[in-house]
Amino acid sequence: MAAERGARRLLSTSSFWLYCLLLLGRRTPGAAAARSGSAPQSPGASIRTFTPFYFLVEPVDTLSVRGSSVILNCSAYSEPSPKIEWKKDGTFLNLASDDRRQLLPDGSLFISNVVHSKHNKPDEGYYQCVATVESLGTIVSRTAKLTVAGLPRFTSQPEPSSVYAGNSAILNCEVNADLVPFVRWEQNRHPLLLDDRVIKLPSGMLVISNATEGDGGLYRCIVESGGPPKYSDEVELKVLPDTEVTSDLVFLKQPSPLVRVIGQDVVLPCVASGLPTPTIKWMKNEEALDTESSERLVLLAGSSLEISDVTEDDAGTYFCIADNGNETIEAQAELTVQAQPEFLKQPTNIYAHESMDIVFECEVTGKPTPTVKWVKNGDMVIPSDYFKIVKEHNLQVLGLVKSDEGFYQCIAENDVGNAQAGAQLIILEHDVAIPTLPPTSLTSATTDHLAPATTGPLPSAPRDVVASLVSTRFIKLTWRTPASDPHGDNLTYSVFYTKEGIARERVENTSRPGEMQVTIQNLMPATVYVFRVMAQNKHGSGESSAPLRVETQPEVQLPGPAPNIRAYATSPTSITVTWETPVSGNGEIQNYKLYYMEKGTDKEQDVDVSSHSFTINGLKKYTEYSFRVVAYNKHGPGVSTQDVAVRTLSDVPSAAPQNLSLEVRNSKSIMIHWQPPAPATQNGQITGYKIRYRKASRKSDVTETLVSGTQLSQLIEGLDRGTEYNFRVAALTINGTGPATDWLSAETFESDLDETRVPEVPSSLHVRPLVTSIVVSWTPPENQNIVVRGYAIGYGIGSPHAQTIKVDYKQRYYTIENLDPSSHYVITLKAFNNVGEGIPLYESAVTRPHTVPDPTPMMPPVGVQASILSHDTIRITWADNSLPKHQKITDSRYYTVRWKTNIPANTKYKNANATTLSYLVTGLKPNTLYEFSVMVTKGRRSSTWSMTAHGTTFELVPTSPPKDVTVVSKEGKPKTIIVNWQPPSEANGKITGYIIYYSTDVNAEIHDWVIEPVVGNRLTHQIQELTLDTPYYFKIQARNSKGMGPMSEAVQFRTPKGSNSPHGSPTSPLDSNMLLVIIVSVGVITIVVVVIIAVFCTRRTTSHQKKKRAACKSVNGSHKYKGNSKDVKPPDLWIHHERLELKPIDKSPDPNPIMTDTPIPRNSQDITPVDNSMDSNIHQRRNSYRGHESEDSMSTLAGRRGMRPKMMMPFDSQPPQPVISAHPIHSLDHPHHHFHSSSLASPARSHLYHPGSPWPIGTSMSLSDRANSTESVRNTPSTDTMPASSSQTCCTDHQDPEGATSSSYLASSQEEDSGQSLPTAHVRPSHPLKSFAVPAVPPPGPPTYDPALPSTPLLSQQALNHHIHSVKTASIGTLGRSRPPMPVVVPSAPEVQETTRMLEDSESSYEPDELTKEMAHLEGLMKDLNAITTA
Description:
Elements: H1 2-9, H2 15-25, E1 53-57, E2 62-65, E3 70-72, E4 75-78, E5 83-88, E6 91-92, E7 101-103, E8 109-111, E9 125-133, E10 137-149, E11 154-156, E12 161-164, E13 169-171, E14 174-175, E15 183-187, E16 190-191, E17 198-200, E18 206-208, E19 217-223, E20 230-231, E21 235-240, E22 247-253, E23 258-261, E24 266-268, E25 271-275, E26 279-284, E27 287-288, E28 297-299, E29 305-307, E30 316-323, E31 328-345, E32 350-353, E33 358-360, E34 363-367, E35 371-376, E36 379-380, E37 387-390, E38 394-397, E39 406-413, E40 418-428, E41 463-470, E42 475-480, E43 492-499, E44 506-509, E45 517-520, E46 528-537, E47 540-544, E48 548-551, E49 566-571, E50 574-578, E51 591-598, E52 605-609, E53 613-616, E54 624-633, E55 636-637, E56 644-647, E57 658-664, E58 670-675, H3 679-682, E59 688-695, E60 698-708, E61 713-716, E62 724-733, E63 736-740, E64 744-747, E65 764-769, E66 774-779, E67 790-797, E68 803-808, E69 813-816, E70 824-832, E71 841-846, E72 862-868, E73 874-879, E74 894-901, E75 910-914, E76 918-921, E77 929-938, ...
Parallel strand pairs: 2-10, 12-21, 23-31, 32-40
Antiparallel strand pairs: 1-4, 3-8, 5-6, 5-9, 7-8, 9-10, 11-14, 13-18, 15-16, 15-19, 17-18, 19-20, 19-21, 22-25, 24-29, 26-27, 26-30, 28-29, 30-31, 31-34, 33-38, 35-36, 35-39, 37-38, 39-40, 41-42, 42-45, 43-44, 43-46, 46-47, 46-48, 49-50, 50-53, 51-52, 51-54, 54-55, 54-56, 57-58, 58-61, 59-60, ...
Helix pairs in contact: 4-10
């Protein structure tokens, strides 16, 4: 090695010596392929040389213990020196900030104080050394596994035994497989010296052969794995004197199947005991082994066989045969030998030009067959169109580019280990010739024929490049010689081509000088390629031709499926598949590919076949496989056959039954229980089980019992009392009997004990706490006449029910392990039998404190932010101040994210772990506020929770319908129903409204149902004027800002039978007539009394009043009068004055503010905004009839007979204000005035628009809106011009009460002729019979509209005729029923000045002729009354 290092120092001084040394180095074991040295340079050319870059030492698999230190060796050679880094489990380690891991000067990794616990194993894993040289490349070492031995735990402990002198004895001590090297034995508390007679097997078992009296004593095994030693039970071995009495020949220890790697040592244990003392010999595959003359085969103590330096030839079946002259017994075991990956051919260094194709060759062997992957500069090579794995292990790179330069490594890996070999790729400039190297590295298509370049003219571009033949997978190109060299006999050509849109170019060279055509093979069908041709002469490469774009033909004429495919099993591990030639396809079949796959898996394997049959070996026994065949011709793969399935043949089971257990029933019977062998080891259908049992004292007398394959238990009866028996079970198939279980012992009872009741409480319980364990000991119940089959030990912190362990009835102590230090544990002990568990015995203990101080806590994460992504997803991000500035995590820390919502208040936190600085929380509820916090954990150190971040998920459409939908009829109004409901349970946001659908046909399309919108979060709604005695179906749909939710189930409701009176109570027609007669009679009597009083008052009129009247007559030339605004006496015949009064619309008569009215859209062609100039002295006026008419303020779907509902009418074009509503009662003087009308209650924000209206009908007040509006009404008289028919200059005509007072519903002839009446209203005067206030006339021009204030849409103000025609209007709430609009009659009003003078005269009186006219009018009213009552 010193000479080799000295030689390396000379590398920098002489390239010649470098080349020679590298050639020698290739023969040195362990040197990588990169040592192949520099290629000789061509004369006159500057060629870069290959750089030696390889590993001197690579890490190996290592076993360590907790708390110790470990070194993983690694050293690499290169000039300049490489930079060494380490990866663990594929991730780079940040050694700069790691306080336990550090990089040694030679590149090795040193780990101090190895950490390992049940839940935290940061050091265990796969390590890889990475060496990098800047501007050169990167190579990676083989991976090495670091295993940390776990806590010592005995799977079996030594048991007291006795041995006859001269015989053999064994003492068990089985621990974790990785702790076997740390096991040692003590005899009488002194270390036991091992020799040829006393040995320790690899399992930890102690074998003593040819026992002597000195071998007797107390034995125990110890596990020392860095921490405190772990001791097994201490047992006594008795050595009995040799007697003449013979004993059965038995195996104390049999060999078991083993798997070893080439070069390892193996021990096949075989220990037999009996009198006379037996002799043991070994056989392999029916041939006797000569252990005396072989150096590799040695018989150890007890005749166990040791094979040193195992080779593949050592694999096979070994038989151990014991013979003592009286009997012979044998045991067998299979030895499987595996081999680590080994390179038969390593990749070699390659020179190449851009656009060339190269192949790195790599042949490996090993057992199991290794898998191969390629790495370029430390990164995995992913197979693609330009990086392909060919011939199983070789790497082909097509169309080289400059970035492909670097170091390529072939990494072979199997279950045993892994290995790597590498080579360097150098891409030269096109004017530099490739040095002569072994031709295996370049494909035939890209072999370069360049000679060293000389100075001279270069050729121009080839001419007329065309694709003379285009197929599916090849294209033939032809061209003419360049213009610079018309003959071109000495020119060679290179064709560069690539897929369109791909930068990586490939090259194909002509085969001889002067050839002007080339065929490009292995193209893809229906793909566009771009070609260019370049000519070369002795001076170098010339100009390139223009790119030529050619598309290959689509794939045609592929082979069809191979017919008659059949598969049949030829053995338990092989299947033969046969097929015939496909009947369809173009051209000759080149080969077949046979695919096969184990049923139930998704990993398909394939094999190339040139004939029509193939036998696949190495399959699993009694396992079903599927097969298919694909034929290949010159165009590629054809159509696959259908899958055929077949199962391999069965064989004897390869494993014993599982979980064998014995249950002593009484003094003469024992119950045996077992489970079938593992499915993968049954190798066929289990047809039965063979049970063998014997007395422990007479091992030669064996009894056999066969049971069926479905039986998993058997009661063995007729046994002796108080006798120990051994049992074993083997499984059977039709092929034979498989291996049996180990012998299991049980002892029958001395007498039949009572098992009709549970055992009594154990007589004592003692505990002894340690740091992480508690030793529990006890004594059995005092009543020994009750069967005890075992003891149940329960334990836990604060409660004994956390964990339960059951032990055998013979056991008297148990150690509870893996406990927390300084913790209070409660322990319970119960005896049990088949009846149940007995009374428990309780004890408590506090484990001892841990001597290691608790680690200091870590800093909590900072900057926690919650980014809402959707209705159920929030991304949590944070920063960790304990990380470097770039926030790169290189250690084993992890983060815990927790979150919760405060609705409901007792919601528990949810947690999730993350290894990055962000986490995506999913599955959240929509429109819900969550709080998040984060903590970091590294090893045993954890931080506190960070500050919380909050985030509210986005809203989502309601995902559940409104619930508890009920429909009830409104009391006293059978045509009105009330719909009630509750919000949806999953609203997923703020509910902004509901839509009620109802229909009489539950099966109708949803667009045919009637729609009732409800605004806001109201939970009840009225629907009016439904058809009586009719079933309706109702559905409700909730709405939020994201859209509509699902509809509720249809709720059926049948409207009741009956009819409605004008006031909402059902009455008969006779009652209606009687009521009408009573009202009219009272009215007539009142009129008569008023007339008499008026006549009496007229006679007492003063002369002053007569003068005033005469003066008025002289001025106007007619009988007119002036009135005082303070005391005016209108005609006494105005019998319906009290019903016309101020009705502010901002008060809702309904006591329920949540309830809304059914929206009733109406035509609104002439809507005049409310006048805001009314006198302020009537702000506090209230409607005395409000309570009486509250029922009528609701919207209805049909008019009520004989009832005029209240009207709400805007006054003029001023900005909207509270509206004055006029409430006329029935007019009794003309029968044709009685017509059906509809209420004008405002709709509940119906978003409708009438084409004849200048404003959208959607801004009207609901009752709840009106309830909060101002009750003031203002009216400032306007001096605008009035119609001539409705105004006079002085005072009102006393003889025309209808026109003079504007109190009747009849219009004058002038009003009938006018195209449109004026809207009007009146204020209730202080005197019961005072006249109306003067209405304002709307100014000409279009009215203004303020959309910010609600307005009430009115019906069209049409001229009133004596014959009222009903008009049908459509509504979304009427089910197509007709709805007559309300005709609005606007009486003529006196002029402002005239009315003012009339009101100022408080002492007006009537002349006798006026009274005569009044009496005549009264007589006409009486006639009308008689006509009504008679009818």
